[in-house]
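Tip: read the tokens left to right.
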């Protein structure tokens, strides 16, 4: 996809992403594709239907990325955020994942679900969106009157030294076979992993018989790949030389005749796919700067697209409903959840979509760590809530926590503090 001007190329990317996200919003609303719901069904009811849908999306994304990258039609090495960075920020991935998992449970859904709920008429989710956006924005942007971000103030000094330099890339292929054998190793590792996931997912007759779960998983995986494809293949014809958007931005003074049409930053022009916490921060920044169109990014268009698609389906299906907080406690719980998602989503470099599907499609080790942290944080929070509800005053936080860890097979049965119900 080659364009004669940068403005035309960027415009095509932005509107293409909006269209893909619009479909994502429709699909997520129609099929009730919900990653928090997947964990909830698994933990509370032993139902793996929606978890299999999430895993199905992951398998589709891995297979598609293996194909696209092998034929040069996807460039995950140049991605934004840098999933395959040589510095493995494992502690940030794990802590961020845990915080996000806890937050999405308290806030009634992950980043994508928050947008879907807004499109469906949920006013509570607007508050969650704004708080996530505020935290995410100042995690990467200087606080007013300073040159410090929330990340540098609260986290950098103690958590970044824990990072491990793993060489040129943290994708599983490079870690196993080095740079020279990375491509072949990725095909083998990714192929085996995707095959195992597909076997687990498709062996379930209940899953195969659920139209919504199959459609949700399939379409989410395909749409993740569609965004990777579009953002990896847009080029500008700069006097006969094909240049990607980031390279053109970096050489703007030499290639462009004026500053007109120049974005505020170059990194968001990189190859990427769907993630929703940092884009909520970008959306907050856009509002803060008075809708300065130079700040318009892939992420902002994806946010608008998912909300629009969800709204479209809600209207077509007559499921649009206004919903508000039912108590002060409900408001406080959602507020805490939103704060944790804002911190965790940036710290872990993504959310259930950003790391749990998009990042894993690149086979980045950090993405698997974040995915694990999200599921653990969410599952453990649900266990604590459950035991606190059943046992009331008898179930102190520590007792509920330890018992939850026992239920999740992370502590021995002998340490159980509350009887299983």
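Filled-in amino acids:
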């Amino acid at each position: 996809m080659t364009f004669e001007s940068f403005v035309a190329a960027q415009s095509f990317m932005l509107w293409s992403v909006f269209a893909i996200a619009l479909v994502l919003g429709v699909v997520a609303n129609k099929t009730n594709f919900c990653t928090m719901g997947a964990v909830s069904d698994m933990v509370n009811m032993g139902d793996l239907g929606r978890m299999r849908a999430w895993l199905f999306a992951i398998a589709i994304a891995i297979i598609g990325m293996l194909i696209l990258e092998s034929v040069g039609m996807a460039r995950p090495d140049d991605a934004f955020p840098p999933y395959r960075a040589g510095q493995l920020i494992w502690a940030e991935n794990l802590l961020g994942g845990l915080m996000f998992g806890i937050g999405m449970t308290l806030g009634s859904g992950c980043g994508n679900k928050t947008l879907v709920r807004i499109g469906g008429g949920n006013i509570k989710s607007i508050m969650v969106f704004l708080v996530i956006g505020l935290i995410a924005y100042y995690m990467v942007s200087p606080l007013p009157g300073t040159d410090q971000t929330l990340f540098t103030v609260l986290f950098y000094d103690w958590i970044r030294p824990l990072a491990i330099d793993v060489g040129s890339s943290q994708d599983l292929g490079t870690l196993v076979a080095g740079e020279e054998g990375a491509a072949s190793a990725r095909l083998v590792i990714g192929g085996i992993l995707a095959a195992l996931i597909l076997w687990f997912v498709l062996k379930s007759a209940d899953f195969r018989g659920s139209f919504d779960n199959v459609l949700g998983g399939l379409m989410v995986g395909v749409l993740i790949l569609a965004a990777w494809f579009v953002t990896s293949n847009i080029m500008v014809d700069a006097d006969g030389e094909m240049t990607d958007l980031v390279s053109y931005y970096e050489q703007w003074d030499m290639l462009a005749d004026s500053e007109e049409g120049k974005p505020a930053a170059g990194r968001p022009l990189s190859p990427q796919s769907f993630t929703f916490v940092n884009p909520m921060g970008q959306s907050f920044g856009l509002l803060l700067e008075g809708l300065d169109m130079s700040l318009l990014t892939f992420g902002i268009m994806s946010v608008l697209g998912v909300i629009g698609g969800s709204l479209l389906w809600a209207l077509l299906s007559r499921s649009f409903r206004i919903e508000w907080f039912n108590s002060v406690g409900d408001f406080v719980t959602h507020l805490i959840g939103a704060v944790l998602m804002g911190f965790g989503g940036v710290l872990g470099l993504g959310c259930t979509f950003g790391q749990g599907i998009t990042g894993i499609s690149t086979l980045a080790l950090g993405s698997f760590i974040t995915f694990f942290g999200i599921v653990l944080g969410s599952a453990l929070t649900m266990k604590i809530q459950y035991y606190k509800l059943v046992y009331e005053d008898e179930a102190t936080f520590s007792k509920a926590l330890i018992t939850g860890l026992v239920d999740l097979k992370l502590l021995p049965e002998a340490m159980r503090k509350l009887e299983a119900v």
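Residues 2-415 form one domain. The mean pLDDT is 94.
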